[in-house]
Amino acid sequence: MEKSFHKFSELYKTIKVLRDPGGCPWDSSQTSKSLIPYLLEETYEVIEAIEKEKYSEIKEELGDLFLHLFFQSQIYEEKKAFNLSDIFENTNLKLKNRHPEIFDKSYINTGLSWEERKQKEKKREKFLDGVPKSLPALTRASRIQEKAAEVGFDWNDLKPIWDKVYEEIGELKNAIESKDNEQIISEMGDVLFSFVNLSRHLKIQPESSLKNTISKFEYRFHNIEKELEKQNKSLSEASLEEMDEIWNKFKNN
Asked: Taking residues 173-187, what's their average pLDDT?
């Protein structure tokens, strides 16, 4: 742990040097807002590394993410708004306040869930507030459902969830037949939302599941390209039947 604190301090000092006059022109010119795209990119790179379960990549990408978190903190320290110590103190206090049954010997169980404690602490008017609107839609849908489930608004088994999936698919079919574009968009959203709920009950992350399918599609489609190249054909020259035949050939690979 002592070694970790030492390395932590070294990184903090490095970022300060880069931000100081005479440091790196690019680093010293950045603002908290200008760094948002890079912070978002690094966050997704951490997620990808975790999904691939490659420890060396996870270590590297977590380091890059820490760099940006330290960077943001340094900018606000320069503004004399707060510093790293304030951040850690606030986070530590928040964790203890949300786990009174562990840290408070005089704690009396109030029956409030984790989400209800957060709502009370942050003085939110709506229970479902607090899930960032900028999250990918599948992830946000899952988090919204998780929050609702915290207070019992959820099914206990898969049958009613399957029934809801089929119900929403039926309503989408009806909307398509009616050729009502606004209704089609609405019903498509309901279908996707119901599938997110199914994936949540199956303990599957919908975002990761879809990303996996996208990767499979890319792999198989690239094989179509390669097979057509062997036949001196381009994608636009091949028929759907030809592409479908190659697709099925590689489907189980």
From this structure: 95
pLDDT of residue 1: 67
149-175 core/surface letters (b: 16 or more CB in 10 A; e: else): bbeeeeeeeeeebeebbeebeebbeeb
With H, G, I as helix, E, B as strand and everything else as coil, classify residue 23.
coil
pLDDT tier at 253, thresholds 50, 70, 90:
low
Backbone φ/ψ region at 247: left (φ over 0), alpha (ψ -120 to 50), beta: alpha
> Based on the domain organization, do 19 and 60 belong to the same domain?
yes
Q: Are 85 and 5 in contact (CB under 8 A)?
A: no
- DSSP SS3 for 71: helix
Question: What's the number of domains the chain is made of?
Answer: 3
What is the residue range of 168's domain?
Answer: 155-204
Same-domain status, 170 and 246: no
Q: Where are the beta strands (DSSP E) in 71-161?
A: none
Q: What is the pLDDT of residue 132?
A: 86
The reply to whether the predicted model has a pTM over 0.90 is: no
CA distance 27 to 23: 8
Which one, of 186, 206, 208, 189, lies nearest residue 197 by Cα?
206
Mean pLDDT, the chain, as a whole number? Answer: 90
Q: Are residues 91 and 164 in the same domain?
A: no
